[in-house]
Amino acid sequence: MISETRVLEVLKETGVLLQGHFLLTSGLHSDKYLQCAQVFQYPKYAAEFCQALAAAFAAEKVDLCIGPALGGVVIAYETARALNTRGIFAERDQAGAMTLRRGFAINPGEKVLVLEDVVTTGGSVREVISLVREMGGKVVGVGSIVDRSNGKVDFGVPYHALIRFEVNTYEPNECPLCKQGTPAVKPGSRK
């Protein structure tokens, strides 16, 4: 396994942790943002992190790894490589629903591991879990690099994060940064 100290060292080295005023995908605001795409530009770190996640779920005999686009694409692929299985991703259709495209499929009864880079509210992960179940797959767990939910998220299956961050989040109408007049930026993949 990998230590939280090591994970934090790599996240700092690769510039993952940003400070400012951010609008999160969940609609919440925060003074910190974790841009995990920064770590995934280095294959050696992607492999190190995903091998640790694969080890956490090795006993589950995973058939398929899946992640929501865009944050879950690389982590699903690298974890699938470490588990010697298939890796795919779900993406949003024009109506905004999570779906499989590009000929991807989930076979009934397949044991599926859902992966995401950062979990805040768990909304995208829950959508992928629902999609997997609708297609007859069995979700055996969820893995992420970062859990920034302050331990509040529950997917109803085993969840393993390499590191937990307690990061302040605010409803827009209660955000102290908004009250100071600081404009919020959305650095993630969805606009």
Please summarize what this structure is.
This protein is an alpha/beta fold and 191 residues long.
3D structure, described in words:
The chain is α/β, with parallel strands linked by helices and 191 residues long. It has a single domain, classed as Rossmann fold, CATH 3.40.50. It is built from six helices and nine strands; from the N terminus they run αββααβαβββαβββα. It has helices at 4-13, 37-40, 43-57, 73-83, 123-134, 176-179; strands at 17-23, 29-34, 64-68, 86-92, 98-99, 111-119, 138-147, 159-164, 169-170. The chain has a six-stranded mixed beta sheet with strand order 5-4-3-6-7-8, with helices on both faces. A three-stranded antiparallel beta sheet has the order 1-2-9. The N and C termini lie far apart (35 Å). The mean pLDDT is 93.
Strand arrangement, major sheet: 5-4-3-6-7-8
- Largest β-sheet summary: 6 strands, mixed
Q: Please report the number of helical segments.
A: 6
Q: Please mark out the parts with pLDDT under 50 across 5 or more consecutive residues, or reply none.
A: none
- Order of SSEs, N→C? HEEHHEHEEEHEEEH
Shape: globular
Gap between N and C termini: 35 Å
List its salient traits:
191 residues; alpha/beta; Rossmann fold; three-stranded antiparallel beta sheet; 6 helices; 9 strands; globular
